[in-house]
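Cross-check.
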Amino acid sequence: MKSIFLFFLVLFSRNTFAFQYELRGSLGKDPKTQKEIGFSMNWSEQNGVCRGTYEDQSYIGSGILRGINGVSGRLFVITSRGLDKNIRTMILATSNLKVEKGEASVPISFTIRDAKGNPLGTKLASAKLIQGNSASKIAQLQEEPCQDGFGELAGFCGVYSGLITETSDSQNRCDLLSASKVKLVFDENGELGLVLGDVSEILQTPIHRVGRIFINPSSRRVDLLTRGCRELVGTRFDKDDCKILNIQGVFSLFQNIKHFVGKYSILDEKTTQSCTYSLTLEQKLE
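Predicted model, tokenized:
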């Protein structure tokens, strides 16, 4: 999940993409019904960045698609909205073939992962790449990001940075501010977390993932927490102790700039040692 959250951070953009593509095919047969699992993807590209939507009939259902188009091909990350609760994301790779007119067959490989990022299976398949389809659907996604299901927080997802201050640290257990850059990320799947470091370091950047907003919240105030029992980067808590991470605060809009003011706390359940940071941030458009 670490790399998935970073894809949302790196690929946030309000640009209008110049090209639209569609990829349709089969992911093989459903092991229960033995029926073909059809899928379709619609996306736009600009400067190697891909953005769009994904649908299938078994694994993901419908989801947000993000990706990159590099020298060796396209790599997509699709986040599940919940057909199969055991599946959280899909990683799909294909060639960087471009189609001027009509369609062309392309090989693909895909890996499905659970909520912890563990692979559940990898398969090879083929699909048809088509240019210029579903432009209206993608244009709507680009013009109105973070609308469906966001309620009072519609349009507030993005990257926030600014003043972060350590207000308490009971036993010198936290050192988040030693990172070169600390940002709050509110992604297009409704999840919030802190990113420690330069976002260009895709695989190395530490992340504290805190939680996901409720569907259609009636307030811009958030109070999210999660519990994890593993090593937490930027801290000196025992890696085997369970920690509770909590973000509280309020999003607001002032003079056409989105803001977040609140606090972030970490509590070690076993030792009750804790640290707290105050956050006064504003959205940075990439």
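Confidence is low (pLDDT under 50) at residues 1-19, 133-143, 199-204. The two ends are 22 Å apart (CA to CA). Passed to J.P. for a second look.
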